[in-house]
Backbone:
């Protein structure tokens, strides 16, 4: 599934193509997509395909096409502080992007059938938290993954503001999926070969919208135990953050505000003018031809049809070349201002590292 947009050379170019094709339509979704590099969720030997608009599957590991994830993120209408349930959470790629929008006071849970995929997702999440500068640019709602069949979620689990299912849902399971949703919530799932958005407008009232035709592998039916009973999936409890964690969130938020104020002060109105990229004009050059005749050298200029013999044009070309700008220097690597500010504070090192979530440089 996919192939709706051109491949990109890198993550940003892929996002540019998705925007141009109107799959990404809002700034929040664009920021989340740019902040999480899709290639980081591929196995090393398959990374050359990461920026193509194609689904990828290797064993139990699976990623949907970028155009599908774009439509899903837009349809979910995510906001900070909401609760999100990802059924068939896979690599955690989608859950990580969602977490950047939900912020520190959201809820971000995933259910995955395969234990090896759960382990893979945890490794990718750990890599993102330790190494990505995006972690410091956003307030992140870290995903929690549990193993189990998403059709066996315990009936006493909490309902969610947003629910996504990453496998094909048959009509017989539609009501079950709806039961996971709060009033006012949104459910997005592939239902009978159509990516479908269902909004719960009341206790028994629903609005349904078909988004686009899709092809997903169907949900795997539960396997009952020897006793004939199903294994109920217990979702993580809605934990209350500790006072220490709340203090860390507040301190990081205050430092980010200081950084923004300093940026505005240093740039006047806060808007930095970006110099435009100048393209050198390609010119046809006259050919200097040397002809060898009986061991004697005869030099001649052979003009092409596009040549102009006027001296004024030659002088103008020379002047333009003299005015040609020097080659642009490579852009400096991005600076993690939050990290620099924290490390400069007159605090004990253990407290600095705690504020940085013990992340690598």
Residues:
């Amino acid at each position: 599934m996919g192939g709706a947009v051109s491949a990109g050379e890198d993550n940003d170019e892929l996002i540019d193509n998705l925007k141009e094709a109107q799959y990404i339509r809002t700034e929040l979704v664009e920021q989340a997509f740019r902040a999480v590099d899709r290639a980081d969720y591929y196995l090393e030997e398959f990374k050359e395909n990461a920026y193509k608009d194609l689904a990828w599957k290797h064993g139990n590991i699976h990623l949907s096409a970028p155009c599908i994830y774009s439509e899903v993120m837009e349809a979910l209408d995510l906001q900070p502080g909401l609760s999100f349930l990802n059924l068939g959470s896979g690599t955690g790629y989608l859950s990580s992007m969602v977490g950047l929008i939900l912020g520190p006071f959201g809820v971000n849970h995933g259910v995955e059938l395969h234990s090896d995929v759960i382990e893979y997702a945890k490794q990718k999440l750990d890599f993102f938290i330790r190494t990505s500068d995006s972690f410091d640019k956003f307030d992140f709602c870290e995903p929690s993954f549990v193993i189990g069949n998403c059709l066996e979620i315990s009936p006493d689990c909490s309902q969610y503001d947003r629910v996504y299912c990453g496998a094909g849902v048959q009509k017989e399971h539609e009501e079950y999926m709806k039961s996971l949703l709060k009033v006012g919530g949104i459910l997005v799932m592939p239902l009978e070969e159509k990516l479908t958005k269902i909004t719960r407008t009341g206790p028994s009232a629903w609005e349904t919208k078909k988004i686009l035709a899709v092809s997903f592998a169907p949900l795997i039916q539960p396997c009952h135990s020897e006793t004939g009973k199903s294994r109920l999936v217990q979702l993580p409890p809605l934990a209350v953050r500790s006072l220490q964690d709340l203090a860390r969130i507040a301190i990081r938020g205050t430092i980010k505000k200081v950084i923004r104020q300093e940026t505005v002060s240093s740039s006047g109105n806060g808007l930095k003018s970006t110099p435009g990229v100048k393209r050198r004009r390609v010119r046809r050059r006259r050919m200097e031809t040397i002809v060898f005749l009986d061991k004697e050298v005869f030099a001649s200029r052979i003009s092409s049809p596009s040549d102009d013999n006027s001296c004024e044009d030659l002088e103008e070309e020379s002047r333009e070349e003299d005015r040609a700008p020097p080659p642009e220097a490579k852009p400096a690597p991005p600076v993690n201002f939050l990290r620099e500010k924290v490390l400069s504070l007159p605090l004990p090192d253990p407290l600095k590292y705690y504020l940085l979530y013990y992340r690598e440089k």
In short: The two ends are 37 Å apart (CA to CA). Residues 243-266 form the longest helix (24 residues). The chain has a mean pLDDT of 84. The chain is about 30% helix and 20% strand.
